Amino acid sequence: MIDKEFHLERPLRWGMVGGGRGSEIGYIHKNSALRDGLFTLVAAAFDVNPERGREFGRNLGVDESRLYDNYKEMFEKEAQREDGIEAVSIATPNFLHYEMATAALNAGLHVVCEKPLCFTVKEAEALRKLAIEKQRVFGVTYGYTGYPMVHQARKMIENGDLGEIRIINTQFAHGFSSGMSELTSANTRWRQDPKIAGPTYVIGDIGTHALFLAETMVPGLKIEKLLCSPDTFVKSRAPMEDNAVVLMKFTNGASGTLWASAVNAGSMHQQKIRVVGSKASIEWWDEYPNQLRYEIQGKPAQVLERGMDYLYLDDDMVNSFRIGGGHAEGLFDAWANLYRRFGTAMDRVNHGERVEDVMKDLWFPNVNDGVEGVRFVENCVRSRDQNSVWVDYQ
Ligand SMILES: NC(=O)c1ccc[n+]([C@@H]2O[C@H](COP(=O)([O-])OP(=O)(O)OC[C@H]3O[C@@H](n4cnc5c(N)ncnc54)[C@H](O)[C@@H]3O)[C@@H](O)[C@H]2O)c1
């Protein structure tokens, strides 16, 4: 059971770019990073509006002199301090990730960056190269994969409980943009602007989560070819899609579908995955994250519960629990599991281990996973632009 114990000499000095007042994702970054005491928040450029960002930071108790107008000033001034930041999280709209993450790595900082990582595979590969060159940890916040039951599914698949994997159906299909939500929500509006969001709307925004969920559950999963069929049901959003179905063939012989949608009317999240093997299937839904459905052909279906002795989960950090079974754990706990791993990885690298070795040894969503998300988007766009044909995955 995770009980806030950790073995770092001291918390890592951590800063934030973006995630200011009223942002969708800023609070969960702070809550998760600070939860277990591996990080301490000492500096920030929280907001596109520096005044509002400073006021926000003051209210959070950050030292006024370390609340900056922008990320450039922050990285420069922090580098001049003996007690400057060692790590930064980037929680700004997508178009800023590449330049900010590049600047952070060049300033010698470990990075946690939001998804989608950037706009092109070329940029994503450049970030990967730079992270390795600079020997810095690069985490990506695919937060749903911090849920223990996702890792129970991974262990069952690794163990062969499902048999040969045949079908993977994954989806993230909410209904929040069934109407013209962009008229009232600023952060829905930017998600539909290709200059800010990148070449796709739902494929990059939530499809990348659904893909990484599948990649986490099925180790070694690789797409061989895909066909992307996008729709724009609210016509004013064109050329951006608000719904997409992607058909996939995987290199292990399995077939799959990915459904990403913002117009699944009435749905909250519907982030679900079903992995079908030759003997059995599993199904997981992020609105019921403490349960995993396990169906063996010819037997009654079972629901596995987090916190029970019959699970495979061992006492490592992402797989262990924060409270016993029966008490629901949620997204804040899942994210804290990720930040606990990001912090552990950073500490190990600070103590001389090579970042490549830590990435092999310690599971966390890392720069490679960020690259794969961008690759998926780029291949979907190639299929889409040829009128939705099958394309070999590049
Ligand atoms: N991992 C997840 O589950 C998840 C969930 C939601 C959003 N996201 C991602 O997080 C990122 C932010 O999304 P959001 O919904 O919170 O956006 P948002 O529009 O709600 O908030 C963006 C924040 O960034 C700040 N910002 C913008 N430009 C800035 C700049 N130049 N310098 C400093 N701060 C700046 C804004 O002031 C605001 O505080 C996006 O990349 C999005 O895809 C991820």
Describe what this molecule looks like in 3D.
The chain has 394 residues and is of the alpha/beta class. The protein folds into two domains: 12-144 and 338-366, 3-Layer(aba) Sandwich (Rossmann fold); 148-319, Dihydrodipicolinate Reductase, domain 2. Helices cover 35% and strands 21% of the residues. The chain is built from twelve helices and 14 strands. It has helices at 26-35, 50-60, 71-79, 97-106, 121-134, 148-158, 186-191, 194-197, 202-217, 331-350, 355-361, 367-385; strands at residues 12-18, 39-45, 87-91, 110-113, 138-140, 165-173, 223-231, 243-250, 255-261, 271-277, 280-285, 291-296, 302-305, 391-392. Strands 13-12-11-10-6-9-8-7-14 form a nine-stranded mixed sheet. A hairpin with a 5-residue loop joins strand 12 and strand 13. Helix 5 runs antiparallel to helix 12. The radius of gyration is 21 Å and the shape is globular. The protein starts with 11 loop residues before the first strand and ends with a strand. The mean pLDDT is 97. The site of nicotinamide-adenine-dinucleotide (NAD) has 24 residues, from strand 1.
